[in-house]
Design a protein that fits this description.
By secondary structure, this protein is an alpha/beta fold. The protein has a single domain, classed as Rossmann fold. Helices cover 43% and strands 13% of the residues. It has 13 helices and seven strands. The strands form two sheets. Strands 2-3-1-4-5 form a five-stranded parallel beta sheet, sandwiched between helices. It has a two-stranded antiparallel ribbon with strand order 6-7. The longest helix has 18 residues. Bound molecules: zinc ion. The site of zinc ion has 6 residues, from loops. Zinc ion binds next to loops.
Length: 307
């Protein structure tokens, strides 16, 4: 039985950093956004693995694919079927299928075998998949030999909208590039993913296997928050990357894709910035707040920094 922590939530919510920190612990391997493995190898510009090698040349991922017969020689129809887990419109269907034991067997096998092979090639007890898309989590929840934990990482939508106003580029790994996105699109993603995480994915995992985390809470107390996640997933806490309450050292890991920041390693100090308070134009701030306030209230978002 593979133990997997699936991170669900909107893009630019801090999942790359949270997953990188978790992946530093001895018992955990961080796959990054594993869903994109095939896309990055075969369809769009090549990605670098988090270790720096082109993804297709990384020994860890070669071993993972060698140990995952279902993931080998995928046809274009197979890939089309695989990426059908991505659109918002597919999530209710995936939820319904999972509930009635009708989940796409091939996609379940691909993900399940890759999780198991990654755990075995890295010797880890837990795989972190930061793919973030609820549809992937719904299929992961239906894999018979996966013990799935879900971390719903949420963040003040005004911060998320503000982050998407600035492109983030990686010349060596163009597939990591994050372009600029209009506020309406980011709000739609934020609302859809939040609701799918809470209404669909939460119902597909066992009691005690779902945790909601606010990025702001993490940034206020990074070490304490990561240690709480370690307790939540029930793995050994050896190999902590933290040298202080908000100081950590990140070593390279074998991540498929993520925010370009995943290639920045070394010592870092994690601080809460809330840049939107200075940078986000008032009309955008107002529209974002109005469009998301019920969910923000529900999640307890929008509070000022604790100190
Ligand atoms: Zn690698």
């Amino acid at each position: 039985m593979s133990k997997v922590l699936f991170i669900v939530g909107p893009g630019r919510s801090g999942s790359t950093l949270v997953a990188e920190l978790l992946g530093q612990f001895d018992a955990i391997v961080n796959a990054g956004e594993m869903f994109w493995y095939f896309n990055k190898v075969g369809v769009v510009p090549p990605s670098r693995c988090g270790c720096g090698l082109p993804l297709g040349e990384c020994a860890i991922w070669q071993e993972v694919i060698a140990g995952s017969p279902a993931a080998q020689n995928l046809s274009s129809d197979d890939l089309h079927d695989f990426y059908a887990m991505r659109p918002i419109a597919s999530w209710p269907k995936l939820f319904w299928q999972g509930r009635h034991g009708l989940s796409n067997a091939k996609n379940s096998r691909i993900l399940g075998q890759m999780y198991a092979a990654l755990a075995s090639s890295s010797g880890a007890d837990l795989v972190v998949d930061a793919s973030k898309l609820p549809g992937i989590g719904l299929v992961a929840a239906s894999i018979p030999d996966v013990d799935l934990y879900v971390l719903h990482l949420t963040r003040d939508p005004r911060s998320v909208v503000n982050a998407w106003r600035t492109p983030k580029l990686d010349v060596l790994s163009p597939s990591d590039n994050l372009g600029r996105r209009p506020a309406w699109q980011v709000i739609w993603w934020w609302v859809a993913r939040s609701l799918a995480a809470e209404w669909l994915l939460k119902r597909r995992v066992r009691p005690g296997h779902f945790l909601r985390l606010q990025y702001e809470q993490f940034a206020d107390a990074p070490r304490e928050t990561i240690e709480a996640i370690i307790q939540f997933v029930g793995v050994d806490d050896g190999g902590t990357p933290f040298s202080g309450p908000d100081q950590a050292t990140i070593l390279p890991s074998h991540t498929v894709i993520g925010n370009p920041d995943r290639h920045s390693t070394g010592e870092l100090t994690i601080t809460r910035r809330d840049r939107w308070r200075d940078e986000l134009p008032f009309p955008t701030r107002l529209i974002t707040g109005l469009a998301t306030w019920p969910a923000m209230r529900w999640f307890g978002l929008g509070r000022p920094p604790s100190d």
